[in-house]
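Let's inspect a concrete specimen:
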Amino acid sequence: MKMVTAIIKPFKLDEVREALTPLGVQGLTVTEVKGFGRQKGQTEIYRGAEYQVSFLPKVKIEVVVADELVDAVVEAIAVTARTGKIGDGKIFVMDVERALRIRTGETDASAI
């Protein structure tokens, strides 16, 4: 099993979720986060005063999938979240050693 973590622009969340559903992804976790990458934030104007916003709003999606689904999930997120502009985000893939569904006691693949 692998955990796919994607940091994307917030307005792309619904599109990404819709792209993952046909692949068999049954659940995912979404967290509102803030951060910056190469763009180093952006300049905003509020009441005529210019100021620097260092941390931009992003959405972190975490989904655990079977090894055979990883490539399809990563591709679906990458294609759907891409705008072609700076700040589109990143995708990370990590090994998951064990999973347990608390309610039923199911483990590993049957737990996801």
The longest helix spans residues 70-81. The CA atoms of residues 43 and 52 lie 5 Å apart. Helices lie at 13-20, 70-81. The radius of gyration is 17 Å.
